[in-house]
Every structure is written in C-alpha cells, then in structure tokens.
Protein: HTH cro/C1-type domain-containing protein
Organism: Flavobacterium faecale
Amino acid sequence: MELNERLDKFEKLVSDKPSSFLSKLAQYKANKKWIDHSYNVATTVLEALKHKGMSQKDLAKKMNVSAQQVNKIIKGKQNLTFETVGKLEDALGISLMEIISYNPVSEIKINATQVKSVEKTLTKELHKNDLADFTFSDNFKQKKGVQMNVVYNKLTQAIKYPKVG
C-alpha cells in the first residue's frame, strides 16, 4: 500500500465530521420494537421461501409489488403495513401475526395461577410431619392478595397459626 493510500485512510479515520453512530443508536432505540418484529418477519419469510422453493422475484409477482420491496422485507428494513402483511400471508400461505378481536376491557382474560384452597381450620402449632396428609409443596411463601392469603415457609421450623375463635 502506498503512502498516499495510507494517508487517505488515516484522514477518513480522524475526520472532523461528527460520528453518526450516536444518532443511529438513538434511532434504533426509538424504533427497536418494530425493527425486532420486522427481523422476525424477515426470518419467517425467508424460511417460507426456502420451504416452498420460491425466489424473491416469485414472491414479488404473487404480492404484486416490486422486487425491491421484497428485498427490503427480507432484510428486515421495511416497516410493514397491515396490507403488506396480508399480501405476504396470502402469497406464502403462512400466518405472520395474530390480531386479537375486539373485546371490552372488562372481558379481556388475564393469565392467572389458580390456588386450590384447603378446607381445614388450623388451630394448633404445626410441624412439617403434621403436614404429611396435606398436598402442599415443600416451599410456601406468604403472599397477600385481594381475596386470599397464601402461606409460604421453608418448613424448617414450626409454622404458628393464630387460634381461631
């Protein structure tokens, strides 16, 4: 490499122009969620193309879009509209997203863990061996909820319950 080439490379490295890295990072952070989804779609589309033996050009024809748009999609560089997602799904015979149908907020189901209650009043100090006939796991923890208290203790020592009545 000649001295002039090395000097040119060095000048590019020590340029007076501010780096665009921070602005690119800020843009990525601001758009991270849709960028991540876009990459997931890109991966899924590439897998579907491979599985079906289709080319990007074939997909573009089926979707009635340009080959450049398909290229952006499979590079994860396209912020997709519902229309484009629908075209992709139809052209590839796959499902890329699931839209939850409208329900009033009061009807939306929330994942919850159900706790089976034990119908027994405890009136004495219990030790671990006293619990042999119960179907508790070895570890309990106290968590207070709106309608229940759940007991949790390592059971290495006696659990003292208040007397009822």
Remarks:
- Strands lie at 143-144, 149-150.
